[in-house]
Amino acid sequence: MTETTPSSPAFAALGLREEILRSIEESGYTTPTPIQAAAIPVVLSGRDVLGIAQTGTGKTASFTLPMIEKLASGRARARMPRSLILSPTRELAAQTAKNFETYGKYLKLSHVLLIGGVGMGDQEKQLEKGVDVLIATPGRMLDWFERGRILLGGINIMVIDEADRMLDMGFIPDVERIISLLPARQQTLLFSATMPKEVRSLADRFMHEPAVIEVARPATTSQNIDDVVVMTSPRDKVDALVKLIRSQDIDKAIIFSNRKKSVAELNRTLKRRKLNASDIHGDLDQAQRQATLDAFKRGDIDYLVATDVAARGLDISDMPVVINFDVPTHPDDYVHR
Ligand code: AMP
Question: Best exposed site among 47, 76, 117, 298 by fewest CB in 10 Å?
Answer without folding.
Answer: 298
